[in-house]
C-alpha cells in the first residue's frame, strides 16, 4: 500500500471525509476554521470550497451532489458544488452554545445528527427528515 498526501491545509481539526462516487471527489471539513475542502480525484487538485462563520460539524451527500451541512447553533444548510448555499434551518433553540458533531443518513434519506454537550446540558440526538422536519430523538 502506498500512502500519499492529497491535501495539506494545516487543519486544526480535520473531520468528516465524505466521498462522492459519481464525481470522484472527497470532501472534508476543518471544524476549527469553519471550512470545507474538496479533493478532485480526476484533476488531483485540492481546494477550499467554503468558509463561513459557523463551524461545519458534519455533512451528508445528496444524490444530486449537494451537501447537507450540519453546523454551529443547530443550523442546517444545503451547499452546491457551484458555491450556492441555502439555509434550511437557521438554528435550534437551546443549541446556541453548541454545534452538530457527527451525522449519518439512513436508506430512507433521514439524517441522524448529534450535538455537542454544553456546561448546562448533555448533547442531543436529532433526526432531520427529507420533508425538512427536525425531531429530538434523545
- Rg, please? 15 Å
Q: Give the DSSP E fraction (strand runs of 2 or more residues).
A: over 45%
Mean pLDDT: 93
Number of E-state strands? 12
User: Spatial order of the strands in the main sheet?
Assistant: 1-2-3-4
> In this structure, how is the largest beta sheet organized?
4 strands, antiparallel
Measured between the Cα atoms of the first and last residue, the distance is 41 Å
Total helix count?
0
Outline the low-pLDDT stretches.
Answer: none
Shape: globular
What proportion of the residues is helical, as a percent range? under 10%
Task: Assign the structural class, choosing from mainly alpha, mainly beta, alpha/beta, alpha+beta, or little secondary structure.
Answer: mainly beta
* Succession of helices and strands: EEEEEEEEEEEE
Please characterize this protein's 3D structure.
It is a single chain. By secondary structure, this protein is mostly beta strands. The protein is 0% helix and 46% strand. The strands form three sheets. A four-stranded antiparallel β-sheet has the order 1-2-3-4, with no helix packed on it. A four-stranded antiparallel β-sheet has the order 5-6-7-8, with no helix packed on it. A four-stranded antiparallel β-sheet has the order 9-10-11-12, with no helix packed on it. The protein is globular. The termini are far apart. The model has no long low-confidence stretch (mean pLDDT 93).
Secondary-structure map:
Elements: E1 14-20, E2 25-30, E3 35-40, E4 45-51, E5 56-61, E6 67-71, E7 76-79, E8 85-89, E9 100-105, E10 111-115, E11 125-128, E12 134-136
Antiparallel strand pairs: 1-2, 2-3, 3-4, 5-6, 6-7, 7-8, 9-10, 10-11, 11-12
